[in-house]
Amino acid sequence: MALRQIIRRHTSNPFACIHLNAFYSSFVSSNSDSDTNVNTHFVEKDDFGYCNDGRDKFGKMGSEDYEDLSFFGSDNGEFDKNQSSNFDSFDKVVESDEEVEKEEDGSGSDDSFMVLDSIDKNCVNREDVRRVEVEEDEFRHPIVREVCRLIDLRSAWNPKLEGELRHLLRSIKPRQICAVLRTQADERVALNFFYWADRQWRYRHDPIVYYVMLEVLSKTKLCQGARRVLRLMARRRIDRRPEAFSYLMVSYSRAGELRRAMQVLTMMQKAGVKPNLLICNTAIHVLVVANKLEKALRFLERMQLVGITPDVKTYNCLIKGYCDLNRIKDAIDLIEKMPCKGCSSDKVSYYTVIGFLCKDKRIKEVRDLMEKMVSDSNLIQDQVTYNTLIHMLSKHGHADEALNFLREAEERGFRVDKIGYSAIVHSFCKEGRIEEAKELVNQMFQKGCIPDVVTYTAVVNGFCRLGKLDQAKKMLQQMYKHGCKPNTVSYTALLNGLCHNGKSSEAREMINTSEEEWWTPNSISYSVVMHGLRREGKLSEACDVTREMVNKGFFPNPVEINSLLQSLCREGKTDEAKKFLEECLNKGCAVNVVNFTTVIHGLCQKDDLTDALSLLDDMYLSNKHPDVVTYTAVIDALGKKGRIEEATKLTLKMLKKGLVPTPVTYRAVIHRYCKMGRVEDLLKLLEKMLSKQKCRTAYNQVIEKLCSFGYLEEVDKLLDRVLSRGLEVDASTCLVLMESYLSKGFPLLAYKVACRMFNHNLVPDLKLCEKVSKRLIFEGKSEEADNLMLRFVEHDHIQPQCQEHLQS
């Protein structure tokens, strides 16, 4: 009951930090105008003002879009004390939107490109993206921080806290709402807050908030959520520019739904929004990411026909598409043809190809391309060029070649910074060439390029990889002598080395004394030690480390939780596993279905069905719906204990929920029913299971199991049902049955099985039939023995003279 109470209190998952790149990768960033300052966040700017004047005139328009999406309270604005913030159900609603239109299958083809025909050829041919800056001060504003604090308390929500948030909503500015949305680590939380705020009385989002929400969602796979926001913009009479559709297209692309991503173009046409260069570049980018380069080229032709002139971003996308398909020559040809197309290539064009050449260590071609940068495109080989080469080569493990370019850069008067040196040092250390890495660090001192913590950490990690832990510790001490304080990453590298060399207890002691060493462990530090203790079988200590981790505010992910649960269950410590699962729920850790299933399976292995069934009920309370693996484990355990009626009810419940039985499920059910001789009940259950998922060998398994348990009479009733299919897989089952009859002293029944096989065009094993024939002759049934051999002659499997020999 304690576990159930915990589940009721904690029905939401913690944040999961999601770091995703913007939908345009660095290879399409062509000029300095698109550079973003680290202290500035950009959102799309609208022609609308920033105040919310006149927003009440929309009333409750579009409120139906929020059905079942309540965040803090009910749809009428009043808090429902019996309602909790359930993010799992939110995912289900967003990703299975029943209002999504059903497009035809063919709309993902070139027919989608016809939307370009609607463009006005006399329109201005530019991207026309207007931006508004959200300054860093907005993120630090007290009202933004307070709103974020209240959102973080969503698991313990009450009417008072919701009232405070409503009060803040009356005075918060649109840019501050944008800052709140961007601050959320989990984009689903941001979307839920967006919905909640728009439902509040006398409040409507400013148009720029919609664009920020779409931009946030474009970095995720929550494509249906983005589509809902876009549809809501139409209901609110908010102007939808091409970039709004662009965000939706990218979100579909991230979710792997290429067809729907391209259907956004048709959606634009229906909405009366004319395409521009931005949406065309996005479409080409989406096609390239999906490895549909030929379609991207056809799209380029179509957009040129309607008067949209591609820019350098367009061609850079295509260059990357060629490189992804290892068509480097075509990529270089495109760079050479760009000036003829009225668009000069930039450094990103060359860097994209150079990166792929570096990956394959094609240094000669890299140098040729560098010369073309100067001769063909008038691009100077500057320090950025050499830094790019050094990093690309180091990343792919070509440290010697990277070092050669570093020397060349220094000879030409460029000063390679510590970042370039650190990249090569890290590459040397990964290859186990620690002495060369140390020599390079010494050279850095000689040239006045003082190594930083990244450089030293790479060397520490290199020593740990080679098992030279003492030298790794000395390197940490030398860092202090050179005025470089080790950071958390440095110590975590040493922790990892200790744990992989069987010294997890020492690693744990390091964490305990971290305050004395003036460093703070992070989630990775704790995870490294936890896994090390687990591998050494010190499970209690591993659990203690995880508890310390949670108490420090770091939450283990479901994979880490499951690895520890598996180890506990494998050691037979299911009580500790269940207690640990309970503590994870109590602390708000992200516990998933697999974690519950692991503990349930462990309890079933120990025949502790009472706790297993109780935990199965707890899964429903926590909205973690059991999957087919969970059900199979419990069904098999119930059958093992002879509780076949309960197993049947649970199987029917599983089927009712739409879960598809797996081969393991079939084997477990068939084995337990056959062992008890419940053939009729089994056949009824099998019919319902087969209606969900066909299994060609289901009845074969039944016959084999019945034979092994000695229920031969029941087998005879099933034989015709199996043989009626005439499958080759059924022949092996019949042979098992014949051997069973023969071993039990019933050669005549084995003979009848062989005859049935012949009648269904299945040929039994000749050697087995010879044994049957001999036993029939021994029992005075020579006529049946002759007939059996004659059937082989009729099917051209033995010659007549061989039959006479067998009879003699």
- Main sheet specs: 2 strands, antiparallel
**Cα distance spanning the termini:** 77 Å
Approximate strand percentage = under 5%
Total E-strand runs: 2
Organism: Dipteronia sinensis
InterPro entries: PPR_rpt, TPR-like_helical_dom_sf
Family: Belongs to the PPR family. P subfamily.
Keywords: Repeat
Keywords:
808 residues, mainly alpha, 42 helices, 63% helix, repeat, PPR_rpt
How does this structure look, described?
This protein has a domain at 721-808. A two-stranded antiparallel ribbon has the order 1-2. The longest helix is centred in the C-terminal third of the chain and has 16 residues, at 728-743. The termini are far apart. The chain is globular, with a radius of gyration of 35 Å. With 808 residues, it is mostly helical. The relative contact order is 0.05. The chain contains 42 helices and two strands. Helix 24 (488-500) runs parallel beside helix 26 (523-535). Belongs to the PPR family. P subfamily. PPR repeats lie at residues 241-275, 276-310, 311-345, 382-416, 417-451, 452-486, 487-521, 522-556, 557-591, 592-626, 627-661, 662-692, 695-729.
